[in-house]
């Protein structure tokens, strides 16, 4: 069988085990030296001044928005195609998510739709760098500047990605990352971080993640309990040096997929619109999605759908009176993801392509 994903430690197994043992032997599990070191190392890796480790990528978005003063009465323009947590994070701070439809090739938010969605209540744009491909950040930043809007980048699926040669996360005021186990840099549990270039924002984010404490037992403002723990920070430190190599492996596998899937009429392979794509996932489109997935499953090839329901059509968003996004509706009805991860063999890509060709 070719599984969709391989989550067990592989070449990193020894380093991960040593990292866990180091934390256990030290006996310090929350807000300790591993987190301090990881925050510095991760900030350097993504070209940010400061990183703040938190419990999840969702919390990273919500805390970033709060640091920018965004809350009740505000609107945040975002993508209808993503994991729903990006929009739920907006709702967590009391703001309203406003959905702007997507570019049909890039699958990220369409700048023209963003412009059309701006109102007097708009406070920020939350572009999602999806599947490893960056949103059109120069166009989005131009809109933000025209309308005096904050920009928080959702980089949860785009570790080390670039847009026009510039790192994602470096365009907006803040950026959010997830270390959920399936991510390109994943923990062995939940985790996240936000990055900023403003030291004052970083200090406030550290307060907010720790109950709003300005000092021990002194809660200066309303905060949450969202802290990246020492074991996960240590695991991420062990894996971070391997991330550039893993990223290049993902790109090589994607090139192989593109070469071997060329000319197969039953599927549509989206174009690579920026060489900084990091291929968190390898999605393809087909009007016969379920037939193809069933045929692949019968040959032992696992696939998944990311995402079958656009966020505006989720029941949890009904109270927000979401706008309809027909491009996202169409893409969600056709999209599915093929296996792609660093441990995948080239022969496995050939087997997937052969199965699709036979179909």
The gist of it:
The protein has 359 residues and is of the alpha/beta class. Helix content is 38%, strand content 14%. A seven-stranded mixed beta sheet has the order 1-9-8-5-4-2-3, with helices on both faces. Strands 6-7 form a two-stranded antiparallel sheet.
Structure description:
There is one protein chain. With 359 residues, the protein is of the alpha/beta class. The protein is 38% helix and 14% strand. It is built from 12 helices and 13 strands. The strands form 4 sheets. It has a 7-stranded mixed beta sheet with strand order 1-9-8-5-4-2-3, sandwiched between helices. Helix 3 packs across helix 7 and helix 9 runs parallel beside helix 12. It is globular. The mean pLDDT is 98.
Describe the largest sheet.
7 strands, mixed
Strand proportion: 5-15%
Instruction: Tally the helices.
Output: 12
Structural class: alpha/beta
Strands of the widest sheet, in order across it, are 1-9-8-5-4-2-3
Poorly predicted parts: none
Helix content: 25-40%
Outline type:
globular
First and last CA, distance: 18 Å
How would you describe this structure in keywords?
359 residues
